């Protein structure tokens, strides 16, 4: 465990927890302005969280421990990922966990916990949302693994820190077909995994179309606040992963204060830009029919597989 | 041109070929498919241009310009004209294999192409020959489009995709098969497209549709 890793392990989760609701706020604000509305302001998600945290905890009758543990598990897994993935520093506080498979498994664990909680309520919407989420998750996970695997083939290691620092040393790799195909595949699965348009509409409460909202329909008060915070953190984590895997410049490689400040600023700028682009793109998209979603994800799986194939036969 | 820049540009052009072939399989709107096909023509021309710069041959440059004019200009234009006359049928609505399954089939075809072209690559390993699997993949995907699509126009695009793939493999293996041969092949393809375009419009005049599955039986 290096000094750089420890500093990163402290700075990253603080930054992600504080910044992710702001990211959601920025994305909503961009969307509101493009649609001609005034918008609620960038800090609105934080105000919502504060309001929800002050309320008392209420759980529906007949729900079990699964329902109560799910929000904690979701926040905990997102927090561990925020600690280990190279966002601000190339070294990780807990190096063995900064592995491709471990990170993807942690993120999947949070999603599965939430789906089980949706089933646990025993309502029609909870079950429907959980079943849809599992369908999408089953298609997203292989693509996510294969797309990042395409990048790790050249490095010879599935450690995310190693992948990021090798891209840093050899910038020409970013423009190879393998990493471009992997980038496109990763963007599609991130859109699907974080429940954005065109796969899921984060602002809808229309019964027939919702996926993520249907699962969390029964939550209220502090539990809902935890889930909202965790979804915002997952969005930041995925966007940060995308930014640092393909454009790692600015990330701190030494434990000096200047390098750390640059690393934090670079992460904020990159994730913020990605969020703005994503929100602006969503204005022009309509939600895809649920039965067309597997088509989209099969396409992105093929692109990820082609990325792996290209990294073998064009190397 | 330095060695790394040459390899990188060559790989990018091959990546473009591969991506456009997949997009043809993915999208349903015929107008989008034709546009993607034009982009693939441009990627093929870029591939030839990179090889021409490497070899420093003016003849190959002429071929590159010819490929660009024919495959990114003339052929898409002809296809677009055929589409404009088609009226309602602007989408590939019911392919024989659905889109998700055909994308997965394309993944298998890619691995197959990689497996079968290994002996070819082993003959003389270089940056150009290592890209042969890409060309073979485009040929196989083109053939897949040809056999699974119903509209005459998308079958035509499948045929042209195969031809693009064959041309790419030709240039990657031999660095140019000679201006005369290339000219002959190009004219052949152009002629085939013109004939098929006339055939398509005749079919539509006679039957009111270009769905080839309706043409199984003979009628008076």
Give your account of this protein's structure.
The complex is a heterodimer of chains A (about 325) and B (about 220). With about 325 residues, chain A is mainly α. Chain A has one domain (about 5-315). Chain A has helices at about 5-35, 45-55, 65-85, 100-120, 125-155, 160-170, 175-195, 210-215, 220-245, 255-285, 295-315. The longest helix of chain A has about 30 residues, at about 5-35. Chain A is globular, with a radius of gyration of 19 Å. The relative contact order of chain A is 0.17. Chain B has about 220 residues and is mostly helical. Chain B has one domain (about 5-210). Helices cover about 80% and strands about 0% of the residues of chain B. Chain B is built from seven helices and no strands. Chain B has helices spanning about 5-25, 30-55, 60-85, 100-125, 130-150, 150-175, 180-205. The longest helix of chain B has 29 residues, at about 180-205. The interface between A and B is medium-sized, with 23 and 27 residues.
TL;DR of this structure?
With 315 residues, chain A is mostly helical. Chain A has helices at 3-34, 44-54, 65-84, 100-120, 124-155, 160-169, 177-193, 212-215, 221-246, 257-283, 293-313. Chain B has one domain.
Number of self-contained structural domains of chain A = 1
Name the chain pair with the biggest interface and residue counts per chain.
A-B, 23 and 27 residues
Averaged pLDDT of chain A: 87
Q: For the residues shown, what is the average pLDDT of chain B?
A: 83
Helices of chain A, by number, come to 11
If you compute it from the alpha carbons, what radius of gyration of chain B comes out, rounded to the nearest whole angstrom? 18 Å
The tally of strands of chain A reads 0
Structural class of chain A: mainly alpha
Count the E strands of chain B: 0
As residue ranges, the low-confidence spans of chain B are none
Portion of residues in helices of chain B? over 70%
- Apparent shape of chain A: globular
